[in-house]
Amino acid sequence: MNFLDFIHRQKELLTLLSFGKDQSTDDDAISISHFTFKSGPVSLCPESTAYSQLLDASIPENYSFSYPVFLPPGCHKASGCILLLHGLNERSWKKYLCWAEHMASQTGKAVLMFPLAFHINRAPKWWSDPRSTRSLIEKRKAETGNDRSLCFANVALSERLSQDPARFYVSGRQTVTDIVLLLNQIRNGEHPLFQQDATVDIFAYSIGSFLAEILLMANPENLFGSSRLFIFCGGSIFKNMYGESRCIMDKPAYDALFSYYCNEWLRQIRLSVDEGKVTDDAVLRAFNAMILPEEYQEERFSFFRSRKDSIAGISLQKDSVMPYNGVEACMGHQLAGECFQQLDFPYEYTHESPFPGNGRINEALLNTCFNRVFNQASSFLS
Fold first, then answer.
1. Pairing state of beta strands 110-113 and 229-232?
2. What is the CATH number of the domain that holds 234?
3. Quick check: 75 pLDDT over 60?
């Protein structure tokens, strides 16, 4: 199935669908079901401050939330699942509706859209409200200067990561714990939409790909040993990412995050392991291997070589947030060239908006580029 009019379809889905309510699309081709999820306990990082841990524990949305599943036509109990992982600082599933519908239609698999910790509907609504964030913006301006990259859309994440950069690891760790719990429900036949031992593959965008690579590398409880991963606008090692953006975080927050993980993290976490404050398990080792190109290089390269047939991706040439050189630093030059394809769309785009619906771009071009990406992803994940 090709979308003849991507922008039109996106608008249709926004009108048709109400999150939290089970329903079908207008032509009954796709049905959407929602499920409540309760996040379990997570191993916290000793480098995270007690104050930030206390604040985060008081955010109920992060611990009890719903997630949508897109089911292909005629499917009542799926034998295959595509786990869709989104980008950093996302506050809505809107961008991903056509993505999920297209992959469900083309693969015949259910597409499960799972929110990362403190993102989408796992975050307080005021974090993305212009009026509610006004005082926080003024506070941050007074503390860091009138940075042009600061806005209501990124102020909450910027403030949280500036207060405690370890939150980046902690929230990722919580998401890993949640996904392991979810996949065990599927594997054990406890999920009403999936057959027991249904296959689970991953479509990952942006920071979601960073999490997905860690999941495959760590392979907790042997849940991802046969999973396929398709990456879009991602795959970079941490050091080569560039997160300053009005859609993601402001420059002071990015500078603090970069400095912490590239200069302090490995030394601190190794000390914590030596002192017995934290367990050096597979997830932590995989995370550590994805920070600096020169650290754990052979371990990381060996993993990607062993899984090269089950990982594929598309990088965009003008993507400054997750550049292709970060993929090369992560996987090695040769393997990156084998697994990834570089594209450059014939219109103005950004990492955050690869298919912009601003009305200024020829819709036929948008449709062609959208279908090129998602036909390729669907073919790989089928």
1. unpaired
2. 3.40.50.1820
3. yes
